[in-house]
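call fold target=Heme A synthase
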Amino acid sequence: MKKGGSAVRALALAACIGMFLVLLMGATVTQTESGRGCGDDWPLCNGKFVPDYTITSIIEYSHRVVSGVVGLLILAAAIAVFLRVPRRAPRLYSAGALFFTVLQAGLGAAQVMNPQSDAILALHFGISLLAFTLTLLTVTSVRAYFRGDRSIEAGKPVTGGFRLAVWLTTLYSYVVVYTGAYTSHTDSGGGCAGFPLCNGQVVPSALEGATAVAFVHRTAAYLLFAVVLALALYTWRTYASRRDISNGAMWSLVLVVAQVLSGGLLMALSGTNSYVLGTLLHTMIISVLFAVLSYLSITVWEAGRADRR
């Protein structure tokens, strides 16, 4: 194990935890409709350093403050990685996290000063999700470096087809994330009442407006469950000897099941004071699921490279 590196690992972990918090706070802003809580001022809140004590202004301004602090943490972590970790992957991850954090901040400022369409707003969460995922990958890669090179576990060679399946699943999960964010921003969650059917039907008869948006998201989520289930079963049958890959597939399945169930919980909480908490749980699970699938994508890529040597 390499000596030192405690500060680098601590910074990377703090940045990752902070970015996860930013994700949840952003979801809270959306669900409480607090995006205009500070008017059209940025970075101030209604022209003040300390905003008026209204719920919406406090939620929005708290999100801005925490995002700013986390942005500085990500910058510090990136600098530390470039100075102390002479390996390409951690540098790419930390630089990518910084890039998407700055991009998200810019989009947030643009939204405040020049309101955007729901389709563009839905991208905001996706960009934050990429920043969070890259901070998590930074944590794992920095940890691996200071512990010494982790060799890829031996086992059955990973085929190109399997790698492609994992990558496409990860990409598709991002599409599902976008449909969920769009559903949230258009306030279309109530378009499909009940669970697992939509308004008591397999395909709603009135497929328009909020019902169409919610139905598309549900269908996409159910398909993601089916794809991850098939991927996990194939992985356990074919690559059981490669624990890094099989464990990634297992956690992906656990999380996608939890995600579907949390969607059902949202329907049960609809119209109650606990609905926002349900949306935060939904956000947490999909964020971790995408991060795990991203980690699995990199793992199968590294395994494929190792198999070819």
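return ok
The mean pLDDT is 87. Residues 275-308 form the longest helix (34 residues).
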